[in-house]
Amino acid sequence: MTDSASTTMAIPDDVYAKPQFAMRAIHLTFEHGFDNILTHLSDPPLADLGNFLGYARTWATSLLFHHESEDEVMFPFLMTKLDFSAEVEQHKVIHSVCTKFAERTLAMQRNPETFDAKELQQILLEHKDIIFQHLADEVSDLAPERLRAFSEAELTDMTARLNKYSKTKSDPFTTFVYMRCHTPPKYKGFPPLPWFVRAVLVPWVFGSKHWGYWKYAPYSIS
């Protein structure tokens, strides 16, 4: 597959459509990561467990950070005029699942003799429905017609604060790289990145620290 401009979806200009577009692109990374981890767990790379388990853990920690940014910035803003209580409750369950998955993959990475593919599969499969339902619900509930409860200036400010939170608090060596190599080609234009960041910093600086992890990702880093 190619990342050429001809196959990249344009980011909407409409302030009210941008949040849903962004959420759909971000959530696709977690859906692809979930499915990809399950596929590898059915035939685990026993000779490279350290890298695979590190990769699997980044799915969980990246989803945890994504939810943290929503809990700290997005939900408090949206809930001044809209009801996102269902999503808040879903976060509590998913936080528990991701924390457990991250802890178990780290423990197995430190002690490969304890690796148990079925245990990790069970954690994911038992909670697949709520994870995928949540990812779908958030996208649906950010429909442009709902967001018109806010002014364009309010939405622009919320987006700016959310972007700032992500840039200043996320780990560029794990979360940022995870997002890039789980973004389908048609969404590679989001978020818009300078050429130097996309083609140099991401693969050769940020991606190099855990290079062995990303061989299990479904898409290219850049």
UniProtKB/TrEMBL annotation:
Q: Which Gene3D superfamilies match?
A: nmb1532 protein domain like (1.20.120.520)
- Coiled-coil regions listed in the entry: none
Q: Which residues form the Hemerythrin-like domain?
A: 23-144
Signal sequence annotation:
none
A Pfam family per the record: Hemerythrin
Judging by the UniProt lineage, the source's domain of life is: Eukaryota
**Entries under PANTHER family matching the protein:** EXPRESSED PROTEIN, HEMERYTHRIN-LIKE DOMAIN-CONTAINING PROTEIN
* Name of protein: Hemerythrin-like domain-containing protein
Q: Organism, per UniProt?
A: Myxozyma melibiosi
